Amino acid sequence: MSARLLDGKATAAALRGELAERVAKLTAGGARPPGLGTILVGDDPGSRAYVAGKHRDCAQVGIASIRVDLPADATQAQVEDAIGELNADPACTGYIVQLPLPAHLDAGAVLERVDPAKDADGLHPVNLGRLVLGVDAPLPCTPRGVVELLRRHDVPLAGARVCVVGRGVTVGRPLGLLLTRRSENATVTLCHTGTQGLAWHVREADIVVAAAGVPGLITPDMLRPGAAVLDVGITRTPSGLVGDIHPDCARTAAWLAPMPGGVGPMTRAMLLANVVEAAERNAA
Ligand SMILES: Nc1nc2c(c(=O)[nH]1)N[C@@H](CN(C=O)c1ccc(C(=O)N[C@@H](CCC(=O)O)C(=O)O)cc1)CN2
After folding, report:
1. How far is CA 193 from CA 121, 123, 218, in A?
2. H-type alpha helices, 89-216
3. Residue nearest (by alpha carbon) to ligand 1 atom 31
4. What are the pLDDT digits (tens) for 150-196?
5. Domain 141-264 in CATH: superfamily?
6. CATH 3.40.50.10860 fits 30-115, yes or no
7. 161 is in an annotated binding site
8. Is 44 a catalytic residue?
9. How confident is the model at residue 65 (pLDDT cuts 50, 70, 90)?
């Protein structure tokens, strides 16, 4: 048996179509078009490509682009000044600071400077706190993309046992919080590469989300036959991009979100959704 595809590319394209309609409605009502800002520090090729992709997506749905690119040796003060400008810019509905930042910068201090109302990534401590409290707020894009991808393929979450492998702040931790809200109602085991008996935890799960950044970490023998498996790991190797899910898992799983083409495109679509929702809130 071969797993059915959790098709992030097609789902993200459908979402962009829906968002374009919402943007058209906003502007037809006289509102300013939503604007997404990005702050990119340095020349990391992966980060450059992700930022370029975000602006291409914006053009497709009618969101204005505001791009701030700073050199790799930018100081903390220069990055914080750029944040101050976007916080004050009325054309900027929401913005992101592309991560990771160069090591000499204090990423936590940078993120704290973002106006929580313009936090398109849902990574400001106030918005992460709202996620803990179950209060409405912009949600981190990858966790939101995982939930939306499962929902749009009718993979049930209520009552499901989900094993999340990876405890990072952009994916694993907020995903655990999102999945355990009443509206999703899943039961989550949050693991990491140091978890004792990792294979046992993974095998208990109906849904496995791998976000540890360890190529091929999840092998077919670790899976419950019929599980839904989502690959969020991306490792750049000389021979190309490698995910956390071993390719042979496609024979054991019932559903597979591959890398590429699974959760990645959903991350980008959810960023647009966060910006459009902020614009709708502002217009209301
Ligand atoms: N400020 C943020 N920084 C980072 C985030 C984030 O959500 N906010 N997540 C990642 C990078 N990222 C978005 O920024 C991102 C990663 C991967 C993809 C994607 O579409 N991946 C493709 C495959 C990769 C490729 O082709 O290069 C896929 O899975 O199909 C989109 C966005 C870290 N930084």
Report:
1. 25, 23, 11
2. 107-113, 125-133, 141-152, 172-179, 198-203
3. 264
4. 999 999 999 999 999 999 999 999 999 999 999 999 999 999 999 99
5. NAD(P)-binding Rossmann-like Domain (3.40.50.720)
6. yes
7. no
8. no
9. very high
